[in-house]
Amino acid sequence: MVAADSPKSSIVRCPSCEGFGWFVDDFGGESADCDWCVGLGYVYRHDGRDSAIPKADFETVAEELEALEHERLRELGYQGAAKKPWQQQIRTNTQLGRNPYNDGDSV
Ligand SMILES: [Zn+2]
User: Fold this and answer.
1) Taking the CB of residue 43, how many other CB atoms lie within 10 A of it?
2) pLDDT tens, 45-78?
3) How many domains does the chain contain in total?
4) Domain-located, residue 101
5) How many C-beta atoms lie closer than 10 Å to residue 64's C-beta?
6) Residue 96 belongs to some domain of the structure
């Protein structure tokens, strides 16, 4: 679909939910998918405009998303040594404590 010489859309972290893909209500603890990126956490950026990545593209961009997600988790401190025990406990019930991209692997 994309011609070889056309400028490629880049994938960026969703500016609305910062890559989480959803929001958690700090008071009620309820979560809701981010409208901006339809819960993906990342959007296309093309000519300075952001648009949601369509489901049809998921397979194509899966690898890039995974790389971006690894980068994001590193920034968040998923590095073992950088994470303090009390921080882990505090995060247990937050979005940081349950990482949906980490299929059961211990962090
Ligand atoms: Zn979002």
Assistant:
1) 25
2) 998 899 999 989 999 999 999 999 999 988 888 6
3) 1
4) no
5) 13
6) no
Residue 84 falls within a domain, yes or no?
Answer: yes
Element (H, E) at 73: helix 58-76
Distance (angstroms) between ligand 1 centre and the Cα of 88 equals: 24
**What is the CA(13)–ligand 1 centre distance, in A?**
8
Question: In this structure, which residues have their CB less than 5 angstroms from ion ligand 1?
Answer: 14, 16-17, 34, 36-37
User: Amino acid identity of 42?
Assistant: Y
Q: Which domain holds residue 52?
A: 10-91
In a domain, 97, yes or no: no
Q: What is the whole-number distance in angstroms between the Cα of residue 16 and the centre of ligand 1? A: 5
What's the pTM? 0.61
